[in-house]
Specification:
Elements (H helix, E strand, L loop, with lengths): L17 H19 L7 H34 L1
């Protein structure tokens, strides 16, 4: 996941932005917690934050992919 946020000068731009990376990382952390929290109750406030992050990620991911696709289309035109 970390490599996707790196821009390689002269080769390609980053696939995902910093905010996208942070959202993905936060959701990955929650997934890890959730998978290993067998005897814990989830706090509704924390679940609500995770849902908000997921919805924000949906928007960010679409924009990042669109920008990267535009870059690829530009390469084809050359």
């Amino acid at each position: 996941m970390e490599r996707m946020r790196l821009s390689l000068e002269g080769l390609r731009p980053a696939l995902i932005g910093e905010e996208t990376f942070r959202c993905l990382n936060d959701l990955r952390s929650f997934r890890h917690f959730f998978r290993h929290a067998y005897d814990m109750d989830l706090e509704p406030e924390k679940v609500e934050l995770v849902v908000k992050k997921a919805l924000r990620l949906k928007e960010l991911w679409a924009n990042d992919c669109r920008a990267f696709t535009d870059f690829l289309r530009e390469l084809i035109r050359r």
